[in-house]
């Protein structure tokens, strides 16, 4: 028997959020049919809205001093502030957003590179966790920059 296939493309409003869409399809004909009851089908399709998240970061310090091996002191270096912003650029509300950030922590011979002094959060809950027992911390390998002009 002949068949017809087609796609439905629906556009939804930002002001009314639906959890499903219902579509009724009906085929009609001028011919006499023995079973017209199977010419109608009702479809219910769940709707999931696609988020439009934008992640940006900014820091107040763009230059870092690197000392030769064995000459660095154990005092902390200059403090820098990094601001991370998560924005919803879409028109649909988003719930339960989780952001995981892994910070570089260890350098050559397990030397501490970075330590977080404090966390300020707006419209968010932040949890600072050290690496757990099972987490593999990969140290940053030493790099020889003696032969590099810049």
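-> sequence recovered:
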């Amino acid at each position: 028997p002949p068949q017809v296939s087609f796609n439905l493309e629906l556009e939804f409003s930002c002001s009314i959020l639906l959890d499903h869409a219902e579509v009724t399809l009906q085929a009609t004909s001028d011919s006499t049919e023995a079973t017209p009851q199977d010419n109608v089908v009702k479809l219910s399709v769940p709707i999931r809205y696609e988020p439009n998240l934008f992640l940006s970061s900014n820091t107040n310090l763009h230059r870092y001093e690197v000392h030769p091996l064995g000459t660095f002191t154990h005092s902390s270096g200059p403090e820098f502030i990094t601001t991370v912003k998560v924005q919803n650029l879409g028109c649909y509300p988003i719930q339960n957003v989780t952001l995981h950030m892994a910070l570089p922590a260890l350098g050559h011979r397990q030397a501490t590179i970075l330590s977080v002094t404090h966390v300020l959060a707006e419209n968010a809950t932040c949890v600072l966790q050290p690496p757990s027992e099972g987490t593999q911390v990969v140290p940053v390998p030493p790099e020889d920059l003696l032969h590099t002009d810049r």
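The longest strand covers residues 20-26.
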